[in-house]
Amino acid sequence: MNWKPFFVAATLGLSAALAGCSSDGSLRLFTSEYGAVTDAGYRLPSVPISQIPRKYHRQIVSYETKEKPGTIIVDTKEKYLYFVMDDGKAMRYGIGVGREGFEWSGVARVAMKREWPTWTPPAPMIRRQPELAKWRGGMPPGLSNPLGARALYLFDRGGDTGYRLHGTPEWQSIGRAVSSGCIRLLNQDIIDLYNRAEIGAKVIVR
């Protein structure tokens, strides 16, 4: 038996595995990191990640941009958020975006970061959903809080845009247009992004 083809194939396979590159362009996939997490006394449940399309799992991808590392770029059409890294790479997260009538685009900055934030529904939302009036003074942090485990507050030249990058307990909403304009990530993903993003980071929403 000629073993040479076997060893060549095995070597190529091992090289691909070590590089961590998949056929769809992902350089590294973090599918295994959606298990239950204890954070600040809260027990975040595991995400049934097998029920979320693979393209929305956190992963490092090749990404060419003129924006500097640390910039956050939101692609509302494809439902991706990119955190720009060095060497033509980015950390990509699956997101949920604003539903029809609540879409927005523009450039902002991360002005504040909060762990387990309080959620205060804006007045227009309370008018649309009067049952939210009980949270006019703020909904305490917790597993059912719509902002999830972390929130990054977006400001522009006019001040607070009212929009946030935040976590969500509603994993089914990732990859869909369902929010009132905010960009939502899985709680395990917003914790990862929170730890990477700095105050003052540029955020581009397309």
Automatic annotation (TrEMBL):
A Pfam short name: YkuD
Alphabetical list of InterPro entries matching this protein: LD-transpeptidase, LD_TPept_cat_dom, Transpep_catalytic_dom
Keyword Signal among record annotations: yes
Record GO terms (molecular function): acyltransferase activity
CDD domains xrefs: YkuD_like (cd16913)
Residue intervals of the L,D-TPase catalytic domain: 70-206
This protein's record includes keyword Cytoplasm: no
EC numbers, comma separated: 2.3.2.-
Keywords: Acyltransferase, Cell shape, Cell wall biogenesis/degradation, Glycosyltransferase, Hydrolase, Peptidoglycan synthesis, Signal, Transferase
Pathway(s) this gene product operates in, as recorded in its UniProt entry: Cell wall biogenesis; peptidoglycan biosynthesis
UniProt-annotated catalytic positions: 166 (proton donor/acceptor), 182 (nucleophile)
Residues spanning the signal sequence: 1-19
Family note: Belongs to the YkuD family.
Protein's recorded name: L,D-transpeptidase
Organism of this sequence: Chelativorans intermedius
